[in-house]
Design brief:
- The protein contains 17 helices and 13 strands.
- By secondary structure, it is of the alpha/beta class.
- The strands form two sheets. It has a seven-stranded parallel beta sheet, with helices on both faces.
- β2, α2 and β3 form a beta-alpha-beta unit.
- α5 runs parallel beside α6, α6 packs parallel to α7 and α10 crosses α15.
- The radius of gyration is 21 Å and the shape is globular.
Length: 382
Amino acid sequence: MDSVLIVAAEASSVTYAQKLIEHWKKGGRQIQSFGVGSPEMEALGFERLGKSEEMAVVGAAEIINHFSLLKSVFDNLVREAEIRKPKVAIVMDYPEFNLMLAKKLHQRGIPVVYYISPQVWAWRKGRVKTIKKYCKKVFLLFPFEVPFYQAHQVENQFVGHPILDELDDKYFDPEWVSTERQRCGISTDEVVLGLMPGSRRLELAQHFEMQLEVARRLKLKIPKLKILILVAPTFEREKLYPYLENFSCPYVIMKRNPFDMIAMTDYVLVASGTATLMVGLLQKPMVIMYRMKPLTGWIAKIFVRGTRYFGLVNLILGKEVAPERFQSLANPDELTRLMEELMLQPQKAEEQKAELRKLIHTLGEKGVTQRVAAGLEEFFSS
């Protein structure tokens, strides 16, 4: 039986890794997978040496706080890779950890493939040299990544964005949306604001209270407002309860397929990340925000010099389609003002929707997981 090492430490990566394992099982492919992943991956037979829900950290301070855990998992992965000698290691996003791991695996003769590669085309472009040195192949999600990697002579394959495989026509069916909203206790005359604070612990701490404050202020202007709190796949609902003890606005807290939840919203206040792409594909007017610890934010600004946007939808579309605010500019006053513009000026919302409709044409076609699996076959035949 072929052995495969997978590192999926973040919410979006977990979803795509799970789909790959499901594809192999459905096709009767005998593959023994191990590494970093989720309980859902474990239920499919994946052996967890690291837990994604513990490793989804961001920022220098949080990485330092979790250093002993991260190092323990890292060392264990290297040790087990030496013993098991997997046919291929599939690393997903999580660049600081995965690029160091790629180097160690490369030194041991284990081929590394990067799936969900870092956004080196947007910031810290120098990392492409590390990818070229230690990775056999990179699966690319966006067409505009292809010329960048080709220019740096990195072996690559454009597969499209795996998020497309989750996009169902039902999400655009008003009857389906209405039925689902009613099941969740949302009446037909209510305006639904979705809150998406992020999928990492530090993001929750930095964003959620502020998002709740924005929701509270908006409720004063929009009496029929209902708050839908979208729980990330890497969280349990209980993690959010302490923040809600003094929150008096009517709300629904939900943990389902992210697309299912987003489809039930009318507007979204979202932390920057893959979530913005999901919101954009469902054409929901949004405001993007992100806050880091001061030192981490200062470092980030240095690395992203020359990059005009940080929101993924804006990066892809090449302009600020959705308003985005970072660090001190992501404050309750400014975020409330921007949300009010969308919610109280229908033309603003419609203009954003029109731009968001262009997103799907940049992301390739469905069938991404199948293309990734096919692209990995060369390593199993060796």
